[in-house]
Amino acid sequence: MKESIFTDPFKKARQETGIGEMDDQNDPVAMILGHKEVRRAAHNWKSYSSGAIPGRIVIPSEVNIRSIRQIPFEVDPPQHGAYREVVEKWFKRPLEKKYEEELTLQIEALVIEVLEQDSFEVIHDFALVLQSQALTLLFNVPFEEAQTWISWGTHVFRSKDSALDGAKANVLYDYIDQKLAESSSNPGKDFYAVLLAAEVDGKKLSAEEAKGVLILTFAGGRDTVINAVTNSIAYFAEHPKSLEWLRKEPELLPTAIEELIRYFSPLTQMGRVATQDTMVCQHAVKADSRISLCWASANRDETVFENADEVVLDRKANPHVAFGFGTHNCLGATHARQVMKVLLRTLIAKVKSIDIHDAKDNIEDLGDFKRKVGFDSLTVKFNKI
Ligand code: HEM
């Protein structure tokens, strides 16, 4: 099978009932699969809340390893809006010229380095490094800090042996505590200082609230970006004509990036907790039970996307929901899009073609649904122009 094919395991259930069911640590989830229904439920925060106990809207649930609320992600309106306002401007900085220039220097240096190698493993030697280095720009901290983040591996809560690794999570929590303590005695011009100076409804953000924002920023933008980068490299390895096409028509880049993100949907789903008894797609949802907004399924909905299972780099209308929809749409999307833009721009400028030497899939086990979300490892060679 071609490495860059990402099948849609939800198709049958989406077409037949619109609902998928899975268990998650004895806390079942009714997965909403259709595009229209996902968008509708994402809007309806009164019935489908994000503000449940910390960790419960995440799948797999993190209730056993996390008691700190992630902000603004696990907060409902109207409080959500107040928190979001505090960080929204900071998360738009990737649009600044200097940010893009520095990102370009980082990514070009990485691509030049791997171009000299006979082969390299994309996730650990490239995507994780790229993601960590780029995040230093979002935090506005020294570039060298990336080394510490790289040492944590590809997921801050997961390890090889465990989908939810409490000990590993503690490494992140301790690190954040230390950085916040340093910042409160000696504030710099970084994200920590911005958070500690921020006020919500006339009150300073507490250290616990700042920590909630920081955990989310470290966790939310990690394996999502790593998968988007790695999967794109596998795609261009197997579609050299697409790489040529973008080389000839770089004005297509923004459209191509949206399409790759739709197709790969790096975040499969996100949960909500029902606040009352409701019905979704003729499926009864009990109060205090979990539903999920299955972005990956919605993005393959054939009633919305023509040739939904194909990558159409010049797809015109592309109302994908890979970055979420409505209230909680992804704050890191501006950064993620810039990372993808600079990466693809660098690839078309410097890489003639890509050979895959070895690949091992990363398959998410969602009960009846098995979804390829990326790779456990991908070894490739970049060929110079
Ligand atoms: C929210 C996907 C990158 C930070 C979301 C949501 C999705 C998503 C689907 C909505 C969650 C919900 O409705 O409950 C992605 C994908 C990414 C990506 C596919 C990469 C390709 C990032 C990055 C960061 C980030 C790089 C930060 C460094 C956030 C935050 C929220 C969020 C803070 C919560 C926003 C809120 O609650 O208002 N993301 N994300 N994400 N994402 Fe991302």
Biggest sheet: strand arrangement: 1-2-10-7-3
In the CATH scheme, the class would be Mainly Alpha
Instruction: Provide the helix percentage.
Output: 40-55%
Bound molecules: protoporphyrin IX containing FE
Give a verbal description of the structure:
- This protein has a single domain (11-141, 223-384), classed as Orthogonal Bundle (Cytochrome p450).
- It has 14 helices and twelve strands.
- It has helices at 11-16, 35-43, 79-88, 97-115, 122-139, 146-151, 166-185, 191-197, 207-220, 223-238, 240-248, 253-264, 295-298, 333-350; strands spanning 19-22, 29-32, 48-49, 120-121, 199-200, 203-204, 270-274, 278-280, 283-285, 290-293, 351-366, 369-384.
- α4 (97-115) crosses α14 (333-350) and α5 (122-139) crosses α10.
- The longest helix has 20 residues, at 166-185.
- It starts with 10 loop residues before the first helix and ends with a strand.
- The protein binds protoporphyrin IX containing FE (HEM).
- Residues 50, 72-73, 84, 138, 216-217, 220-221, 224-225, 228, 261, 266-267, 270, 295, 322-324, 328, 330-332, 335-336 line the site of protoporphyrin IX containing FE (HEM).
Topology:
Layout: H1 11-16, E1 19-22, E2 29-32, H2 35-43, E3 48-49, H3 79-88, H4 97-115, E4 120-121, H5 122-139, H6 146-151, H7 166-185, H8 191-197, E5 199-200, E6 203-204, H9 207-220, H10 223-238, H11 240-248, H12 253-264, E7 270-274, E8 278-280, E9 283-285, E10 290-293, H13 295-298, H14 333-350, E11 351-366, E12 369-384
Parallel strand pairs: 2-10
Antiparallel strand pairs: 1-2, 3-7, 4-12, 5-6, 7-10, 8-9, 11-12
Helix pairs in contact: 4-5, 4-14, 5-10, 7-9, 11-14, 12-14
Bound molecules: protoporphyrin IX containing FE.
